[in-house]
């Protein structure tokens, strides 16, 4: 029975979808639609998906995209993820797509993502339910909470990680960045403490889970996708147990200031909905900002001038804090990290942690003379705009100073966090995490690559060797020192 279901799901359905695609392509051509140029070539059923997702350096758009853009232009058609697809490397169209969410276009991730993140995950929800979940997430990461609660938490978790680094022995900076963001999210979502057995177990389970999110959705015993579904249910068991403890001990305990407590008290969500919300926030808030941090560490080791300028900025902030007799970062300190924000922007522009998002077309629309038919998939590719020489001068160079120019700083072509009604709900938290981490990193250590490495995208960004680095302490205690070369 299980095998039959799998055969239908993974073989019959794609065959039917491909047939539907070809029949409709003929119909669309007969209607004399002016479809964007492109081809429907590629493998049966999966089309060009493998070529499109073929791993390529994260600071490039990959061979497939390069060839297609140079042959067909910035808007082309293809057959991706088993569906007729329009791919957009056009900044204006990308903005148009994001801003018309729910009206002309709608968020539409492959079914396998929903299978693994859950049907109530924010990434797959649309309409009213999406708005409700989004409001809860925005409340949880509101400006007030960022200042009062999340800033000290981010600082505490940064110091915990930095203090554990061995001097002059290689370790994986990517792993450390992941540990930092995972522990931060686990604490803020469910009040789980770093280094406790339960948290470590959940973190390891989560690594298996992530391998499935980035694998082919083949649900057979032993495949990464199958293992990930098992991990999902183990992770959900932990979250569920936490939830039951809270409900059971409601009278005796003071409600924790975490997302679980908030969702239980202030929302009408069902247990299943809360579970998927928590898991999707863990996913959205963990993988992205950890990769952004790892990329910053990588780009900065090759840019001593940027590190020097960062150290001067953070040294000044730490000095003034010391003069005030304060030991911890304040919101005003954070607001002074101006060059740091340039480094963060440049890291996200060049590294493109989220390279594109999935949408579907809700109604026929014309754009720049092309017909974009209802029912097609459409992919706004942010990376292609961020690495376009017509938009950014020398786009492949790490140049944080470009963000000091008002023209670049005010551009609306920069979309690392998406845009419109689905703009990343955690963008302010992500910036805070990166800025605070960089503050203590540049004041505490000098670092170098222990082995050469490069980040690849397929489409999730990962360093091939985990970004092995060696660090050398500038001072003894990362929290007590001011910087300086
Ligand atoms: C550098 C780090 C980050 C990047 C580049 C990033 C990028 C993005 C992008 C591009 C989207 C839009 C997805 C779409 O439109 O389909 C998104 C959505 C989202 N992100 Fe982030 N993100 C980051 C960090 C975070 C953090 C720290 C959190 C906090 C938990 C978070 C929570 C979310 C949520 C909840 C959504 C769904 C929003 C919605 O559907 O309304 N993100 N993110």
Counting DSSP H or I runs of 4 or more residues, the number of helices is 18
What name is given to the CATH topology of the domain at 1-119 and 353-386?
Uridine Diphospho-n-acetylenolpyruvylglucosamine Reductase, domain 2
Strand content is 5-15%
Instruction: Give me the CATH architecture of the domain at 1-119 and 353-386, please.
Output: 2-Layer Sandwich
Distance between the termini: 66 Å
Bound molecules: protoporphyrin IX containing FE
Taken from the alpha-carbon principal axes, the silhouette is: globular
Text of the CATH class of the domain at 1-119 and 353-386: Alpha Beta
Poorly predicted spans: 481-485
Structural class: alpha+beta
The share of residues in helices is 40-55%
Query: Radius of gyration in whole Å, from Cα?
Result: 23 Å
Quick one: biggest sheet?
Answer: 5 strands, mixed
Strand order of the largest sheet: 2-3-9-6-4
Say how many strands there are.
13
Task: Give the rounded overall mean pLDDT.
Answer: 89
């Amino acid at each position: 029975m299980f095998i039959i279901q799998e055969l239908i799901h993974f073989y019959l359905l794609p065959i039917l979808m491909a047939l539907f695609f070809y029949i409709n392509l003929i119909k669309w051509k007969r209607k004399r639609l002016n479809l964007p140029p492109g081809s429907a070539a590629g493998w049966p059923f999966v089309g060009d998906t493998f070529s499109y997702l073929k791993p390529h350096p994260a600071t490039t758009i990959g061979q497939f995209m390069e060839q297609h853009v140079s042959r067909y232009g910035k808007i082309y058609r293809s057959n991706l993820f088993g569906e007729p697809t329009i791919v957009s490397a056009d900044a204006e169209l990308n903005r148009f797509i994001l801003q018309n969410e729910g009206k002309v276009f709608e968020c539409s991730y492959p079914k396998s993502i929903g299978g693994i993140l859950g049907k109530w995950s924010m990434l797959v929800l649309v309409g009213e339910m999406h708005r409700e979940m989004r409001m809860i997430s925005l409340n949880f990461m509101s400006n007030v909470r960022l200042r009062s609660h999340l800033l000290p938490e981010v600082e505490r978790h940064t110091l915990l990680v930095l203090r554990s680094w061995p001097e002059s022995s290689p370790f994986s900076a990517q792993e450390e960045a992941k540990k930092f963001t995972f522990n931060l999210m686990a604490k803020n979502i469910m009040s789980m403490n770093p280094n406790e057995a339960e948290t470590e177990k959940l973190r390891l389970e989560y690594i298996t889970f992530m391998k499935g999110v980035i694998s082919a959705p083949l649900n057979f015993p032993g495949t990464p996708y199958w293992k990930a579904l098992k991990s999902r249910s183990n992770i959900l068991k932990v979250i569920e147990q936490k939830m039951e403890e809270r409900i059971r001990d409601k009278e005796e305990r003071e409600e924790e200031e975490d997302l679980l407590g908030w969702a239980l008290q202030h929302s009408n969500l069902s247990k299943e909905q809360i579970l998927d919300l928590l898991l999707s926030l863990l996913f959205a808030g963990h993988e992205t900002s950890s990769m952004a941090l790892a990329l910053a560490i990588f780009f900065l080791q090759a840019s001593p001038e940027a590190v020097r300028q960062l150290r001067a900025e953070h040294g000044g902030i730490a000095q003034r804090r010391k003069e005030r007799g304060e030991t911890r970062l304040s919101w005003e300190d954070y607001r002074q990290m101006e060059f740091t924000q340039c480094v963060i922007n440049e890291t996200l522009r060049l590294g493109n942690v989220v390279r594109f998002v999935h949408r579907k077309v809700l109604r026929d629309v014309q754009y720049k003379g092309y017909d974009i038919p209802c029912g097609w998939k459409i992919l706004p590719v942010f990376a292609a705009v961020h690495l376009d020489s017509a938009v950014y001068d020398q786009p492949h160079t790490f140049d944080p100073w470009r963000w000091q120019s008002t023209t670049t700083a005010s551009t609306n072509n920069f979309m690392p966090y998406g845009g419109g009604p689905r703009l990343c709900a955690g963008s302010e938290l992500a910036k805070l995490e990166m800025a605070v981490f960089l503050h203590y990193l540049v004041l505490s250590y000098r670092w170098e690559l222990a082995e050469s490495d490069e980040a690849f995208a397929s489409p999730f960004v990962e360093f091939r060797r985990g970004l092995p680095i060696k660090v050398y302490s500038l001072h003894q205690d990362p929290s007590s020192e001011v910087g300086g070369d």
